[in-house]
Amino acid sequence: MFSINKNVSQLKPSATLLINEAIKKLRNNGKHVYHFGFGQSPFPISKQIVKELQKKATNNHYLPTAGLPKLRDEIAYFLIKHQNVQTSGEFVFIGPGSKELLYQTILMLDGTYLIPKGSWVSYLPQVKASNKRAVILETFFDNNFKLKPEALKTYCTENTKTNKYLILNSPNNPSGAVYSKTELKELAQVCRKYNVIVLSDEIYSQVCFDTKYAPSMSNYYPENTIVYGGLSKVFSAGGYRLGYMVLPKNLHSLQTNFQSLFSETFSAVSAPIQHAAVVAYKYDEKVKKHVEASVDILNLIGNYVYSQLTNAGIECTKPQGGFYVLIGFNSFTKKLKAMGLATNTDLSNYLLANFSVALLPGVDFYFSSESYFFRLAYVDFNGKKALKAYAKNDVSLNTNFVETYAPNVVIGVQKITKFVSLLK
């Protein structure tokens, strides 16, 4: 017989991956589903990146555990130029996705992990799997569920005897919120006072609608902010599974520890993928334009979703970056409960069964089960066709563009607003 580590046996499959597999099965069985449940970039990978991968496909060598030196240097230069993150290649580490690098960090650093309500689904399970303590910090709809410094300060003043790690994600999954420079400065002041180490998940950094990139926590708290990023969102290369992490000044002594842990787990990331990533992070004009065009399209579609839902009386966070908004039906609580829909999971199942709309319930993002919030990922469209139309220059980015090139998004939103109209 065998026994399973209790920290692992209590885990359930990732909600995002689980719903994506479920929708695939439904679609394979002929059911048309409006898929707002999975946040994969809908755009093709830049041709320059793909060509480099093809060119290096025969490279079967193990690369250094910390990563290809050329790639580490290129990422450092990219971060300095395009995210104002001051570092050098020596302190950049390459892994099979930022998700894995975040987990390895949690595995290594003992203490309490602080997670704002309305954060990515995998943060809490990773903390639990590592047998560490996690605390969910309260956030509110009135500021797009961004963590306020008062909430962080309150926790820190009441809990002084433990090492504290704040997991911060901007642009945010699931809300689409972006922390402003002022908001980061205020959080940095609290972190500095209470010696909180920040794990800054910046995987969507260039998918930012108001500026070229989202402000980084490391700009205001460089000594204790670990920065994470990767190919999956900005470069539409989720399947490549390549991420990076950047150690801050105060944690440089951990270099050897991380390299040892990496060497005993994933060894090194695929050589062809790392060589292809060099092209991505060189960020030449063609790659940059590809990314910027994708962001323009996402901005248009995100604002379309926001305007349609808010006009229908549905709570909706303002999309500032990423692929997502959080939407809420809390104005209709009494009627939903009268229908026997007591939890956000109940309502999620109801919308899928009766309206063919797939949303992820808020409970997966650390909301209470009774709170009717859901993540809506507005990427159920053909990104290749949308980019081609955008490149013609004679197509205006307006509602007609959304209706033409993102019909599933349009019809899915219409189904949600129709459902709400029945509750009024």
Detail the topology: elements first, then pairings.
Blueprint: H1 6-9, H2 15-28, E1 34-35, H3 47-55, H4 69-82, E2 92-95, H5 98-108, E3 112-116, H6 123-129, E4 133-137, H7 149-158, E5 164-169, H8 181-194, E6 197-201, E7 225-230, E8 243-246, H9 255-263, H10 271-282, H11 285-311, E9 315-316, E10 324-328, H12 333-338, H13 344-355, E11 357-358, E12 360-361, E13 373-377, H14 383-391, H15 399-405, H16 407-423
Parallel strand pairs: 1-11, 3-4, 3-5, 5-6, 6-7
Antiparallel strand pairs: 2-8, 7-8, 9-10, 10-13, 12-13
Oligomer: single chain
Figure out the total of helices.
Answer: 16
Task: Estimate the global geometry from the Cα principal axes.
Answer: globular
Distance between the termini: 57 Å
At CATH level 3, the topology of the largest domain is Aspartate Aminotransferase, domain 2
Write structural notes for this entry.
- By secondary structure, the chain is an alpha/beta fold.
- It folds into 2 domains: 6-44 and 286-423, Alpha-Beta Complex (Aspartate Aminotransferase, domain 1), CATH 3.90.1150.10; 48-283, Type I PLP-dependent aspartate aminotransferase-like (Major domain) (Aspartate Aminotransferase, domain 2, 3-Layer(aba) Sandwich).
- 43% of the residues lie in helices and 12% in strands.
- The chain has 16 helices and 13 strands.
- The strands form 3 sheets. A 7-stranded mixed sheet has the order 2-8-7-6-5-3-4, sandwiched between helices.
- α8 (181-194) links the parallel β5 (164-169) and β6 (197-201).
- The radius of gyration is 21 Å and the shape is globular.
- The protein starts with 5 loop residues before the first helix and ends with a helix.
